[in-house]
Design brief:
The chain is mainly α. The protein has seven helices and two strands.
Length: 142
C-alpha cells in the first residue's frame, strides 16, 4: 500500500487528468478525497490552514489529537504518529515538499528511515510536480 498526498491539486482535477490519460502512472492508483478541517463545534474543529490541515492528512486525526491548530506555532511537533509510522509493514515513502513547515511534520519519519527519498523543493511548485512525477514513474516501474 502507498499513500500519495498532492497539496493544492483538487480532487476533481486529479480525476479529470486520470480519465483523460494525461498521467499514465495514475491509472493503477486508488484516488480518494480527504478533509482537513475537523467538525465545527466539536473538539476536533480546526481552521482550514496549511499546517494543521497537513497534520490531519498525514496523521489521519484532527487537531484535538495531533495538536496543531494554527499558523506560526513555535513548535510544529505532532502529538500523533504519521500514517507512515502507523503502518505495520516497512514503507518506502518519498517526499517532495515546498514548505519547510511540512518537512518538519515528517521529521521523526525522516530520522527513523521511514522516508527513503525527500526532495527539498523550497518554494518551488515546479520542483514538487517534477519530483512527484519521478516518484510515481519509479513506483509504476517496480
Amino acid at each position: 500500500m502507498g499513500l500519495i498526498y498532492i497539496d493544492g491539486l483538487s480532487y476533481e482535477a486529479l480525476l479529470q487528468a486520470r480519465q483523460a490519460g494525461q498521467h499514465p502512472a495514475l491509472k493503477n492508483l486508488t484516488i480518494a478525497p480527504a478533509q482537513t478541517g475537523g467538525y465545527a463545534g466539536t473538539a476536533s474543529e480546526q481552521r482550514t490552514l496549511p499546517l494543521p490541515g497537513w497534520a490531519s492528512l498525514i496523521t489521519g486525526v484532527w487537531a484535538d489529537e495531533h495538536g496543531l491548530r494554527g499558523v506560526g506555532q513555535e513548535d510544529a511537533k505532532l502529538n500523533s504518529p504519521t500514517l507512515v509510522a502507523q503502518t505495520s509493514k516497512p514503507t518506502q515513502a518519498a517526499l517532495a515538499l515546498s514548505t519547510a513547515d511540512y518537512r518538519t511534520l515528517w521529521s521523526q519519519d525522516l530520522q527513523e528511515g521511514r522516508i527513503i527519498e525527500a526532495a527539498n523543493c523550497t518554494d518551488s511548485d515546479r520542483c514538487v510536480s517534477e519530483q512527484t512525477q519521478k516518484y510515481l514513474h519509479k513506483k509504476a516501474n517496480l
